Target: precorrin-2 dehydrogenase
Amino acid sequence: MSHVPVMINLKDKPAIVIGAGDVAFRKVQWLLEAGANVTVIAPEGKEELQALEDEGRIGWKKKCFDPDDIWEAWMIIAATDSAKINREVAEAAGFHQLVNIVDQSDLGNLCFPAKLNRGRLTLAVSTGGASPHLAGKIRDELAEQFDENWEKQLEWLYKKRKEIKDLEVNEEKRKEALKHLVDQLWDNVTRGNPSG
Model:
């Protein structure tokens, strides 16, 4: 399977999660962090999901899956413990929808990498379905190299980059100044020096 890594803006996008167990709960948390408008489809499930519904953070249709449940979804995640139901979800999805089938990745067109966030920096690792556990281990290794200091450094870079882009200089000088900024940030982080 060929994958193209992309960053997707999920803010306010309708996302459906079929299932309400541990895996579904993790996917719901991931979608909420991204700002998606999440609805769960499952007759019953984890208390933590019930708490999210009580807080008004998710919708929950307490029923078995029906193909009509997903026709308006922008993103669909099938995370039940039934391979049969997950396959039915895949078959019901439209060609224009983003679909993740947690236990049969080849049935969908979307996979979730192991990710690491450091403010504006996002690192993602995928093994193409070979081993999510290995992807997590690689992510954890990267977490040691790209520690919390990166969040502050990226905010500094973001502000400085905006200042340079607003300068009335030719494109070549602007590119040179931006490259210098990145080199300075890299030295700051790798040598443990404060920026500025």
About this structure: The radius of gyration is 21 Å. Strands lie at 14-18, 37-41, 59-61, 75-78, 98-101, 114-118, 121-125. The mean pLDDT is 91. Residues 171-191 form the longest helix (21 residues).
